[in-house]
Structure formats: C-alpha cells, structure tokens
Specification:
The chain is mainly β. It has four helices and 13 strands.
C-alpha cells in the first residue's frame, strides 16, 4: 500500500483541510514525518501516512487491527465492538442546528481489548461519535475533531464537557456549576464569553464527552 502522499493528493480528505497550502502548514506545525518528493523540483515534500489523523487513514483505505470505519450493514468482526457515527455537528462556536441527514450509516469498529483499554467499562451502545464545528473550544478541540459522547449521561452529573441543545441550537461547551447557577464555558476565552443558563431555560443535554479524536485520544 502507498505510504507517502503529497499535500495535493490529500486535499479535501476527511480530517484534513481542503487546500494543499493549509495541509502543508498543518504538517509543519505538527511535525509530520516527511521526505523530499522524487522527481519534483522546488523542494516539494511528501508526508507519511503514520502522521495522518485516523479518519484520514481510513479515507485512504488504511486499516489497522484495532480501529476501522465500517458500514453498519457489514457483518460484525469477531471480538469487535462498534460505535455509531452520527452525521451531525456540535458547534464549538456560536451554535448550529442539529441535523441527522445520514444517521446510522457508518460506525467505528474497535478490537474489543483495545476498546476496553481506552474506554474502560463504558457501554458502546451508549457512545455516539459526532464532529466538532467552530473554534470556541480551541485549542482543546479543533473544528473537525470527532467527539465520543456518552448519551447515557444526558443530565448534568459534574463539571465537564457536554453536548447540549440550547435555544434550538446545539453546542459543545464546558458546563460548570457555581453555587446554584449553571454556566457554559469556552476554552477560547479571548473570543468567547461565558454565559449563564438559568433554571427555567430550555436546555437539553445530549451527553457528556468522554474522548476526542482524530489528532489524539484525550480522556476527560
């Protein structure tokens, strides 16, 4: 299988910017493994697949033994477990409407032992994967990151990252209790102010974020 790719070949793939110049910038910032492209003048580079986000590897057909993206209609592999990928975006910005245009078509399939090491006793049936949109949670979460949301925790259990709908828009924010008051907090504090959620405000918590992908898995 091909292991080295130019920025031009990677344009628009899942998990990467749409323009080659932005991919080159991302590769430099993240110290991707690279080499000079053969037969191309002007100092062009190729990047090794090991440096790419997992969703990009899957888009290129690279599948390892622990995690892969599958169609839900495919037979479940032996000693494997699946987490459904929802076609919705939770806004880490000023909010977006919740849509489910193609819910239930894809899933991430995990080797069972790998899943247990990463997620502990979390029930895969209660996990859903959705994408982040916006920059209000940067640098913790970047637009395009995947969130693993435990939908069994569709209530405020403790301070943490939650996906919730407020005033007909869906957000990913830190929810924090201050006495009897609830506040929605952004990590990008230079651009986004915290805002209070009152007791009688129309809020619905979809679940608590337990991991994020693709750059690396981060436990909360």
């Amino acid at each position: 299988m091909k292991e080295w790719y130019s920025a031009k070949e990677l344009e628009g793939l899942d998990g990467l910017p749409a323009q080659a110049t932005n991919i080159t910038r991302k590769a430099k910032n993240e110290n991707w493994k690279m080499r000079e492209a053969k037969g191309i003048k002007g100092g062009a580079f190729e990047y090794h697949i090991s440096s790419f986000p997992d969703v990009t590897k899957n888009a290129l057909g690279f599948i390892d033994d622990t995690v892969r993206v599958v169609n839900l209609h495919e037979p479940l592999a032996k000693n494997a477990i699946r987490v459904e990928i929802l076609d919705i975006e939770a806004s880490a910005g000023n909010g977006t409407f919740l849509t489910r245009a193609e819910q239930g078509l894809l899933a991430q399939e995990f080797d069972l032992d790998f899943f247990r090491r990463q997620f502990g006793r979390t029930d895969a049936k209660n996990l859903k994967i959705i994408a982040v949109k916006g920059d209000s949670m940067a640098p913790t979460l970047e637009s395009g990151d995947l969130l693993y949301v435990d939908v069994a925790e569709n209530y405020f259990s403790a301070d943490g990252l939650y996906v919730f709908t407020f005033d007909d828009h869906t957000f990913i924010k830190r929810l924090q209790k201050r006495g009897r008051e609830m506040w929605a907090m952004s990590d990008n504090k230079e651009k986004y102010e915290p805002w209070q959620i009152h007791t009688d405000d129309p809020i619905y918590i979809h679940g608590r974020v337990v991991f994020s992908l693709p750059m690396k898995m981060k436990k909360w």
